[in-house]
Amino acid sequence: MTEGKKMTSSRRHHLKSLMLHIAANWIEQEKKDIAAAKEAYLAENCPPPDLSGDMAALTDACKKLHAAIDKVDESRYDTEIKVQKADKEIEDLKLKVIDLAGVKKPALKKVRMSADAMLQALLGSKHKVTMDLRANLKQVKKEVKEEPADVGDWRKNIEDKADRKKMFESS
């Protein structure tokens, strides 16, 4: 379809109903095919029981059927238990994987917010608390210390260094 042409709603509904009708026919045909396949399987693998004969033969056939049913039920029960154990083991392993991986914490975003805005967000708009941190600070005056520039005799300074040198050489 091009951009300029749009489908009318009646046309759209008509096409949708046609598609639903075709899908319903397919599902119905699929059900018929499954029923036919089931009948063919039963006819091939389960021959109809022979009901002719005396009462003893019929009770014997019933006992055989009950024994076969019991065996099938036992195997079904065993497989169900195996499946339940496997499912439980899978669930435990999933939990272990989650525990080993740990909970990933999202990266924190840098938020610029004043102290007043933070308090208002935490306490709500009812509480009017202003927090001027600079008002509570003490005023400190800086004192400039002037050290007297002591210009001494340079020869004295050299003699001190020579004495230190002698100390290191003697040891």
Short note summarizing the structure:
The protein is mainly alpha-helical and 171 residues long. Helices cover 64% and strands 0% of the residues.
Query: Could you tell me the mean pLDDT?
Result: 82
Number of helical elements: 4
Order of helices and strands: HHHH
Strand content: under 5%
Helix content: 55-70%
Structural class by sheet pairing and helices: mainly alpha
User: How many angstroms separate the termini?
Assistant: 101 Å
Name the overall outline.
Answer: elongated
Uncertain segments:
none
Describe the protein.
The chain is mostly helical and 171 residues long. The chain contains 4 helices and no strands. The chain has helices at residues 9-45, 55-101, 115-123, 154-170. The mean pLDDT is 82.
Furnish the topology, listing elements before pairings.
Elements: H1 9-45, H2 55-101, H3 115-123, H4 154-170
Search tags:
171 residues, mainly alpha, 64% helix
